[in-house]
Amino acid sequence: MLTFEMIEKHGDHEQVVFCYDKDCGLKAIIAVHNTTLGPALGGTRMWNYANEEDALKDVLRLSKGMTYKASAAGLNLGGGKAVIIGDPKKDKTEALFRTFGAYVNSLNGKYITAEDVGTTVHDMAYIFMETPYVTGIPQSFGGSGDPSPFTAHGVLMGIKASVKEKFKSDSLKDVRISVQGLGNVGSHLVDYLTKEGARVSVADIDKERVQKISEKYGTAVIDPDKVITSECDVLAPCAMGAVINDQTISELRCKIVAGGANNQLAEHRHGDALLELGILYAPDYVINAGGLMNVFVELEGYSRERAFEKTAQVYDNLLQVYRISREQKIATHLAADRLAEVRIKSIANLRQHHHGRMARPFSTLKEMTNRQK
Ligand code: NAD
Question: Which residue segments constitute the domains of the chain, with CATH numbers given?
Answer without folding.
Answer: 3-65+78-141 (3.40.50.10860), 148-340 (3.40.50.720)
